[in-house]
Amino acid sequence: MKKKFTIQKILVPTDFSDTAANALKQAITIAKANNASIKLIHAVSSVYLTGSELTVPNSEAFYNKIQKTALDKLKAMAATVSGIVVTYDVKMGGIENVINQTAKKEKFDLIIMGTHGTSGAKEFFIGSNAYKVVHNAVCPVITVQKKIKNGFKNIILPIRLGLHSRQKVDYVVELAKIYGSTVHITGYTPDKNKDHLSKIKLYVKQVEGYLKKLGIAFNSSYIHDANFMKEILAHAKNTQADLIAIMNDNDFSLDQIITGPFAKQFVNHSDIPVLSIPVVETDNLSYSPYLSGVSPV
Fold first, then answer.
1. CATH fold of 154-291, please?
2. I need a surface site. Which of 107, 249, 260, 290 has the fewest CB within 10 A?
3. Rounded to whole angstroms, what are the CA distances from 258 to 119, 177, 262, 264, 265?
4. Under CATH, which architecture does the 9-144 domain have?
5. Are 200 and 187 a contacting pair, CB within 8 Å?
6. Which residues sit opposite 111 in a β-bridge?
7. Ranges of each domain in the chain
8. pLDDT tens-digit profile of 31-88?
9. Around Cβ 281, how many Cβ atoms within 10 Å?
10. pTM
11. In angstroms, what CA-CA distances link 281 with 136, 204, 239, 251, 261?
């Protein structure tokens, strides 16, 4: 049985951009609500963009200077935060490797990071650094772009027919408790197949029952369309949502084969923060601990 989701340690990668600053703002709010700590981390890559060319510096003095400058910036950022413990570090290596290795080794509960998104050929062949982190993360990741609000008052909770879809519930529950959120349960099927509709209505009803028991505000709606990402993003904007919760899995649908896993699509294209949750393989894959009938421990 998977343990209940708690937030005690938050990892915040930063490249000192505006979106990274937005990620830190969200992390501070969550940390204060949970009496959690924050660690700021900056990755120093061995390849740098200078002008219009890539360069691979080989001077140890060069790297020492880069690391010292980054540490000074992180120290200044940490000094602006009061009321919670903030540590910081600079590590050599690729962004995705540094972040995920740190999160795994130091057992972080949540990663919050900025993303600049990507599209077109770059998305197809390379993808964003944020998605590379999400893809291999051992803990949930919240990605944010330039548009953020103070907290997550409206959370989109898509419920699909996939085996893992309802594992999102326990994570959304904890964030909803922190922010007093309204959870927008969104039953999704790619078509109006009667069997699919019947199953998704049952799944939504289970989630409704649990949220009602906890006293968490919610409403429910249904979407039937082949393009999952497009419809969920449109629904999120219509409901003025400020967080979309998705699973980081792949059901090998035609849409995902062509345009990539749903997590990649959302991280690269959503200007609304996205909570990406790694799949946990259990004996009962379709249920989160909250919905299995057994209280999580």
1. Rossmann fold (3.40.50)
2. 107
3. 14, 37, 11, 12, 11
4. 3-Layer(aba) Sandwich (3.40)
5. yes
6. 11, 141
7. 9-144, 154-291
8. 999 999 999 999 987 655 444 554 555 567 777 888 899 999 999 999 999 999 999 9
9. 8
10. 0.84
11. 15, 21, 32, 14, 18
